[in-house]
Design goal:
Blueprint: H1 2-19, H2 23-29, E1 34-37, E2 40-43, H3 44-49, E3 54-58, H4 63-68, E4 73-75, H5 81-92, E5 95-99, H6 102-108, E6 110-111, H7 116-126, E7 131-137, E8 145-149, H8 151-160, H9 162-167, H10 170-180, E9 189-194, H11 198-205, H12 208-225, H13 237-256
Parallel strand pairs: 3-4, 3-5, 7-9
Antiparallel strand pairs: 1-2, 6-7, 8-9
Helix pairs in contact: 1-2, 8-10, 11-12, 12-13
């Protein structure tokens, strides 16, 4: 047993890759091997017990966003992690929610209805071109909102870029474009607004002047949790944080007066 545990400890990642190529090895090892997650390396039983018996998975390095969800999110971009999960899910009839896809987001964020006027107001305050606000409930409630990039739209942009044309053979590029041409690229990121958050509840009832400054601060907080990639290329985190400080000072002045 001691030697076996040493093998698991030192060769876990290699065994993940080997198991998906050998059914008998997979059957023996699938419950013992660890997967990389936002909560550290965990075996499948630990992951499922903490995530409502489904795999929550990301294909991009969204480390802060993953940790904010307060449930183990599997790093599917790590070696063999995604195909290992897919194989296990098919055998055991387990759902997979991929963060950043519309189907996956619906499983991770429980959407709620707001009236049209409220939703339009929130979109005007919190979103920018190419973004859309969606009212939802998620844990923890002290996070007012999260931005989740649409991975399908990002894939389409990468495929259609000049760099992709240089890197990918014409046959492979044609196959990839046959998939991405059906993707609507107008919305590249979704802002999930947590209606359980006290800050969001205060935003909805605040006066117009306070609402504007509070929304600016909330957006800056959200952007600090996001990734520094092409999704936010048009938005400088430095500018967002500068706006945060400015809005905080304005609110403090209102309190003094």
């Amino acid at each position: 047993p001691e030697a076996f545990h040493r093998v698991l400890h030192h060769h876990n990642e290699h065994l993940l890759g080997a198991a998906i190529s050998d059914d008998s090895l997979f059957e023996i090892m699938c419950e013992k091997l660890k997967l990389p997650t936002s909560e550290g390396e965990l075996i499948i039983g630990e992951i499922l017990s903490q995530s409502n018996r489904q795999f929550n998975l990301t294909l991009e390095e969204q480390l802060i966003l993953s940790r904010a969800l307060k449930t183990p999110v599997i790093y599917g971009y790590r070696f063999a992690a995604y195909p290992f999960c897919k194989q296990y899910a098919e055998i055991k009839n387990i759902e997979i929610a991929v963060l950043g896809t519309q189907k996956g987001n619906q499983k991770l964020f429980r959407q709620v209805r707001l009236d049209t006027e409220q939703l339009e107001m929130l979109n005007s305050l919190l979103s920018r071109p190419g973004e859309e606000v969606i009212a939802a409930k998620f844990s923890p409630d002290y996070i007012p909102m999260l931005m989740v990039p649409d991975e399908d739209v990002l894939l389409k942009k990468r495929i259609e870029s000049d760099d992709a044309n240089k890197r990918i053979s014409s046959a492979a590029l044609s196959l990839a474009k046959s998939y991405t041409q059906e993707i609507d690229g107008e919305i590249h990121a979704y802002i999930y607004l947590n209606v359980d958050s006290v800050l969001v509840q205060r935003l909805l009832i605040a006066s117009e002047s306070v609402r504007v400054e509070l929304a600016t601060m909330m957006r800056a907080f959200m952007m600090s949790l996001g990734r520094n990639d092409q999704t936010h290329a048009s938005h400088s985190l430095s500018d967002e944080l500068k706006n945060y400080s400015k809005s905080l000072l304005i609110l403090l002045d209102k309190m003094d007066n």
